[in-house]
Amino acid sequence: MENPAQNYIRFLIRFIFGFAGNVVSFGLFASPAPTFYQIIKRGAVEEFSPNPYLATLLNCLLWVFYGMPFVHPHSVLVVTINGVGIVMESIYIILYLRYSNKKQRMWVFKVLACELVFFAAAVVLTLFLAHGTKTRTLIVGILCVILNICMYGMPLDVMRLVIKTKSIEYLPVMLSITSFCNGLLWLTYALLRFDLFITISNGTGAVLGSIQLVLIALYYKSTPKRGDKKPNEVQLSSADGKISPV
């Protein structure tokens, strides 16, 4: 049986990893900022898709709900970073609406309405039909993991393109490294006080991140150097993939 000193040390180490995860995740949430700077400069969203920001918003909403004391206690750091994510994704969506055309705007409103209805239904059904934090953790955790797995599928097309072209032109190096570190930090956080759902989410993220790093190492030299090429514009923080801090 662990003594109070061991418990405190474990809590402190977990807090440090969680805090570091918050810092790295904030960087990932901020990564689309250059894209929106360009959108504001041009005065139009052009062909940029709002889907990554809409998906990330729902992802953050679910994880904030997951981290509530009445669902999964002792998850303050999960709530804080995903709360920040909700604010930042909301800003991106508002800017997208400001600079989009009528057809693009209607699509965003439809998806937002569906997401809010789904989230509200998940909250109401969980709170009224599931009693106790264990049952609530199971239900909300499964929803979070399903959404995360769907979002993790996004970078697979880019990874296939890298293998096909033997070029990492469309795989941002720094973002891939940051995403891998983010997954690793949150995975460690989850293992120190075992959390199955954060472990699955970030274990998957760390594995995919490591595959991206392997691809970068394999094809970095074979990537054509184009001095006059504009830097890749980033819609999300994981090589056209997703932001998933937890």
TrEMBL record:
InterPro entries registered for this protein in UniProt: SWEET, SWEET_rpt
Region annotated Disordered, chain positions: 225-246
Primary localization: membrane
Matching Pfam families: MtN3_slv (PF03083)
Bilayer topology: Multi-pass membrane protein
Source superkingdom: Eukaryota
Gene3D superfamilies, sorted: 1.20.1280.290
Cellular localization per UniProt: Cell membrane
Keywords on record: Cell membrane, Membrane, Repeat, Sugar transport, Transmembrane, Transmembrane helix, Transport
Annotated TM spans: 12-31, 52-70, 76-95, 107-131, 137-158, 170-192, 198-220
CC per GO annotation: plasma membrane
Gene Ontology MF term list: sugar transmembrane transporter activity
Coiled-coil ranges from the UniProt annotation: none
PANTHER family: RAG1-ACTIVATING PROTEIN 1 (PTHR10791), SUGAR TRANSPORTER SWEET1 (PTHR10791:SF30)
Stated role: Mediates both low-affinity uptake and efflux of sugar across the plasma membrane. Mediates both low-affinity uptake and efflux of sugar across the membrane.
Similarity comment text for this entry: Belongs to the SWEET sugar transporter family.
Protein name listed in UniProt: Bidirectional sugar transporter SWEET
